[in-house]
Automatic annotation (TrEMBL):
One biological process term in Gene Ontology: circadian rhythm
Keyword Metal-binding: no
Record key words, sorted: Biological rhythms, Signal
Signal peptide, first to last residue: 1-31
InterPro entries registered for this protein in UniProt: Haemolymph_juvenile_hormone-bd (IPR010562), To_sf (IPR038606)
Cellular component aspect of the GO annotation: extracellular space
Primary gene name: CCCP
Record keyword Signal present: yes
Protein name (Swiss-Prot/TrEMBL): Circadian clock-controlled protein
Length: 279
């Protein structure tokens, strides 16, 4: 299962990176810019001073608050932060006990990121990767789906509208970066993200889950999934994790291309100081 998911995942990331390159190419004339002055909304911290994690947690919260208000360069590329429009998702899981699912999601809209609470932001002094603890009271994803497979022994083949609603979502976000220099500043190149998720409740609804064969069976199946949501979530987990990873990768990659790492961590080393080679 994991291998399949990872393969799909890395394909998505390649598509994503290609997407970014294309967008940047198109926008080159107007937005080669990055911030050369620290924006007023962003308090910076020193990693070599005590209380850094507390300071950094506040900084990341301020960044999120500003994303909700709207950072023009980010809005230009992704549209509003909440509700957010997301890339189509192609998903394939073949070798799990609870599910064998092929699903395609389009017109994906995710709501809830404006209520993001940053609980902790830890930055590693060793490689400047970071681990962020995030809480969302509610996240909802709406999409058009096409699905084929079997979940909890129920064979499925359908397409239509679906939603997934998650309550009290705890996200542990692992971000890998590589430092580089640009215009006299040090920047984070966000190279990989991974999330670990917990929640108190998942509700879903898939319209037309048996290709319209019986409304009654459709209703009772959706009810069955909601009553057994923990098992159902296990089957859907890779789709949900991947959606959250895609969103966070996308946004962070853009934000850290725009805002020098020096404005977050004042005493960050240059890439040369950290890696010991000129790049
Ligand atoms: C998902 O889309 C791919 C590519 O367009 C297609 O090959 C596949 O059959 C689709 N899967 C489903 C379940 O519709
Ligand atoms: C989710 O719960 C597990 C088990 O209680 C825990 O180990 C993990 O750290 C939690 N993850 C998050 C994101 O809260
Ligand atoms: C960021 O890293 C990717 C590979 O992970 C690389 O292709 C890209 O050139 C890097 N960008 C910069 C600005 O260093």
């Amino acid at each position: 299962m994991w291998q399949t998911v990872k393969q799909v995942s890395s394909l998505c990331k390649i598509a994503l990176i290609c997407g970014l390159i294309v967008v940047n190419g198109v926008n080159e004339v107007t937005s080669v810019e990055f911030y050369t002055e620290k924006p007023a909304f962003l308090p910076s911290c020193k990693i070599n001073e005590p209380g850094f994690t507390k300071c950094s947690t506040n900084t990341v919260q301020k960044l999120i608050d500003q994303l909700v208000i709207g950072i023009p360069e980010v809005v230009k590329e992704f549209g509003p932060f909440d509700p957010m429009r997301v890339h189509d998702i192609y998903f394939k899981q073949d070798s799990s006990d609870v599910a064998r699912v092929h699903a395609n999601l389009s017109d994906v809209i995710v709501k809830g990121f404006s209520k993001t609470i940053i609980k902790e932001s830890r930055v590693s002094k060793k490689d400047y990767s970071w681990i962020t603890k995030i809480f969302l009271p509610k996240m909802r994803m709406d999409a058009n789906y096409k699905m084929e497979g079997r979940i909890l022994l129920i064979p499925l083949r359908g397409s239509g509208k679906m939603f997934i609603e998650i309550e009290n979502l705890d996200i542990k976000l692992y971000t890998k970066t590589r430092l580089y220099e640009k215009g006299g500043f040090t920047f984070d190149n966000v190279t990989a993200v991974r999330v670990d998720l917990n929640m108190t409740r998942v509700r879903t609804n898939f319209e037309n889950i048996f290709n319209g064969q019986s409304k009654e069976v459709e209703r009772s199946t959706n009810e069955f999934f909601n009553e057994n949501w923990r098992d159902f979530y296990e089957a859907l987990k890779p789709i949900i994790s991947e959606t959250v990873e895609t969103i966070l990768y996308d946004v962070m990659h853009k934000v850290f291309e725009l805002i020098p790492a020096n404005f977050f961590v004042e005493d960050i080393p240059t890439s040369e100081q950290l890696y010991g080679t000129k790049n």
